[in-house]
Amino acid sequence: MLVETNAVVISTIKYGDSSLIARCYCQQIGLKSFLLKGILSSKKGSIKKSLFQPLSLLTLNINIKNDTSESLLFIKEAKIYHPLQNIHLNIKKNTVALFLTEVLMKVMEEEGDPNPPLFSFLEHAILQLEEKSFSALFHLKFLIDLTRYIGFYPNILNFEHPCFDMENGCFCLQTDSKKIIIGKELEAFKTLLGTNFDKLIFLPITSVTKIKLLDLIVDYYHLHMQKFSKIKSLTILHEVFRET
Question: Model-level pTM greater than 0.90?
Answer without folding.
Answer: yes
